[in-house]
Amino acid sequence: MVAPDERFTRAPKYYAVKQHLLELIDTLQPGSPVPTERLLTAQLATSRTTVRQALAELVGEGRLVRRQGSGTFVAEPKVSWPLQMTSFTEQAAATGHAATTELIEATREKAGDAVAERLGLHPGGLVHRIERLRLVDGTPMALETSHLSAARFPGLARLLKRGDSLYRVLRDEFGVEPVTAEETIETAVASPREAEYLQTDTGAPMLVLSRHSFTAAGEPVEWVQSWYRGDRYRFVTRLSV
Ligand code: GLP
Hints:
- The chain is 30% helix and 33% strand.
- The chain is of the alpha+beta class.
- It folds into two domains: 4-74, Arc Repressor Mutant, subunit A (Orthogonal Bundle), CATH 1.10.10; 79-236, Chorismate lyase-like (Chorismate lyase, 3-Layer(aba) Sandwich), CATH 3.40.1410.
- β8 and β9 (220-229) form a beta hairpin.
- The longest helix has 14 residues, at 13-26.
- The two termini are 35 Å apart.
- 2-amino-2-deoxy-6-O-phosphono-alpha-D-glucopyranose is lined by residues 87-89, 144, 146, 165-168, 209, 211, 222, 224, 226.
């Protein structure tokens, strides 16, 4: 058994710098600047690399933001969304924000075995693969790839061209409403492509939500993977016995 003090002395050097910065952040308003790397290096009598590592972790955790050319600032609080059976558009509206969507790519392709099984199709059945960038108040927040049966939802890609809500189109154009889903959450890091769309850094932490949704009759509707910026989102669920 390791004594607490012994464990603490083995903590990496940058960790003490990070704790110091966390205490500082707690006293500041979102948008306030934090001291420069150079100043922190001098103040804390440590190396620039150590300060850089502490700052990088705090950026990844969504406590600080870097603005090119102007410095590092205390981040705005994360967006807090409940985990529930709503659409991105509805969820943004429910928290007083406006969602917009950019259609990146819509193709029709043969489903791989896993997707075909999830959507209740024969292996190789045709699916829509729709990739969209989701924005909240104009800021890119998530990158979403949805798979839906092409035979069941003809012309879906065209209907989504205007950046419309998928759930609204399913309801109004096809009379289909996903009402239950299995959703999983995993962590991942942004690839260069994802980082570019989401205006973040390659390697930035992401929360990947995968949703497999069904109608009230139990028919599968969609298989979707949504890559949310991990530094901007917190998902909340209510538990009860
Ligand atoms: C969320 C869900 C997706 C769903 C989408 C629909 O992002 N994770 O599974 O497809 O909402 O959103 P909208 O109707 O705004 O297009």
